[in-house]
Amino acid sequence: VQLQACGGGLVQAGGSLKLSCVVSRSISNSNVMGWYHQAPGEQRELVAQITVGYSIDYANSVKGRFTISTDNAKNTVYLQMNSLKPEDTAVYYCAANYFGYDYWGQGTQVTVSS
After folding, report:
1. Could you say which DSSP state residue 70 is in?
2. Cβ-based neighbours of 34, under 8 Å, separated by 6 or more
3. Which among 103, 33, 31 is positioned nearest to 70, based on CA atoms?
């Protein structure tokens, strides 16, 4: 399973970005699809995830600002990020779990300037 993330970039605080992650396998067969981020010197952390039953969870720090969604026809997972803050600066990774195995994309850099 391959995941290709894109959509990162440099944006001013208060701005928006939309990340996309194209998966080489049908995402309707996945257990969980998610987005994580990792800032320099920090652990990788969950940002948002959506389960096979369409249960959605967000990190407290992004609730109300970020939205995870999927397009099963395109095997794509999105992360709409609004009202971005400098502390959102990180490499963002998409991830998929199929039958207990985790797969990761290559990461896309998001930088938010103050």
Report:
1. E
2. 46, 47, 48, 49, 50, 68, 94, 95, 96
3. 33
